[in-house]
Amino acid sequence: MLQSLLNGSLSKLDLITILLRVPCILIALTVHEISHGYAAYKLGDPTAKALGRLDLNPLKHLDPFGTLCLLLFGFGWAKPVPINPLHFKRMKRDTAITAAAGPLSNFLLGFFGALLSRLIAVLSGSDFWSILIRVSLFSDVVFTDILFLFFYIFSLLNFGLALFNLIPIPPLDGSRILFAFLPTNAYFAVMKYERFIMIGMLVLLWSGLVDVPLGNAIDFLYSLGYNVFYLFPAA
């Protein structure tokens, strides 16, 4: 949704959306990686904690290229939290739970952002499109408009981070969730080609072929979160 706006008549949103994306990305990536590390720690693996990855400092979690993709495309990845599955009592199950913790945290943040954007729209006596149009035209913009846009972007980026990382190809979280359902030999046979699979994924990312399906899924989740809170009816 946002990308289509930026490519159309609302292109004046470019600068402000880039500025607002930066703190959104820092929060989303930090929570994502801390969730991985904390889940692993609770399941018996102290590796992330020992290496200082249960830290609110976002610089410890940023992957330069993954962060750039998140800034430009709305979906990307962070620096993986190191885990040692040998510490887990049930390796496959606990590895999958640890992997799922990151995307789950972003889904929760995404719905939280959608709720707050809806609440702001209602309290300001406005609606979704009128706010975006005002900001794009820089006409009668008020603080609540910028606040709405922040939580809108925050929601989209978190949904994008969650969905993208659930793709079941290495090194994304989805591949480690898949580990719980594949025979061990089959899983490690696939992982041998992790580097080549990653290159192929980046080619698809740059080609734009994943933009439409992921973008539609992100829009759907935002709309679901924005509209499900019937306690705050649209203005």
3D architecture notes:
The chain is an all-alpha fold and 235 residues long. It has one domain. 68% of the residues lie in helices and 0% in strands. It has eleven helices and no strands. The protein has helices at 2-6, 14-42, 47-50, 64-73, 91-123, 128-137, 143-165, 173-178, 184-191, 194-207, 211-228. Helix 2 (14-42) packs antiparallel against helix 5. It is elongated, with a radius of gyration of 19 Å. The two termini are 21 Å apart. The model is unreliable at 1-10 (pLDDT under 50).
What is the fold's blueprint, element by element?
Layout: H1 2-6, H2 14-42, H3 47-50, H4 64-73, H5 91-123, H6 128-137, H7 143-165, H8 173-178, H9 184-191, H10 194-207, H11 211-228
